[in-house]
Amino acid sequence: MRILIKFFLLILIFLSTKVSYGQRVDFDKEKENFSFEDDFTYYKGSPFSGTIVEHYENRQVKVKKSYSEGKLDGDWVEYLENGQVQKIGFFKEGKEDGVWEMYFENGQLESKGSYKEGKEDGVWELYFENGQLKYKGSFKEGKNDGVWERYSDKGQLHEKSSFKEGKNDGVWEWYYKNGQLELKGSYKEGKKDGVFELYHENGQLKYKGSYKEGKEDGVWEWYFENGKIINTITYRNGVEIN
Q: Which three-class secondary structure state does DSSP give residue 4?
C-alpha cells in the first residue's frame, strides 16, 4: 500500500512540474506579477517557465516567447498587427540559437541566418521586398568570415568581398550597374595590400597601383577612357618619391 501511495505521489509531482513548465501567461493582464533581474524573468517571485504572450491594443498577438527556469529557452515568434509572422527563432539558455527568420509585411522573407550561443554563425541571407537576394555571406562567432556578396534589387552583383575574423581579408570587387568591373583589390588583416585596379565604365583601365600594409607602394598609373596614359607616380611607404 505504501509503495502504491509513493507511486501516485511521484505521478502528482511529475504532472505538477509539467503544468508549471507548460503554463501560458498573458503578460498584458499580469504585468504586476512579473519582475526582471539581469537576464532572468520571475513570475510571482519564482523563475518563470512557460510561454509569455504579449498583445497589441486590438488583442492581436504581438509576441510569444518561451522560458525555462527564468531564462529565454525555446521558440520566439513575433507578429505584425495584421497577424503576419514578422520574426521567428529559437533561444537556448538565454541566447539565440539555431535558425532565425524575418519577414516583410507582404510575407516575403527578409532575412535568414543561424546563431550559435548568441552569436551569428554560418550563412546569412538578406532579401529585397521583391524577393531578390540582397546580401549573402558567412559569420563565425559573430564576425564576418569568408566571402560576402551584395546585389541590386534586379539581381545584379554589385560587390564581392572577403573577410577573416571580422576584418577585410582577400579580394574585393565592385561592379557598375551594367555589370562591368569597377574596382578590384585585395586586403590583408584589414589593410589594403597588393594590386588595386579601377576601371572606367567602358571597361578601360582608369588607374592601377599597389599597396603594402595600407600604404601606396611602387608605381601607380592613371589612364584616359581611350586607354592613353595620363600620369605615372612612384610611391614608397605611402610617400611620393618622384
A: helix
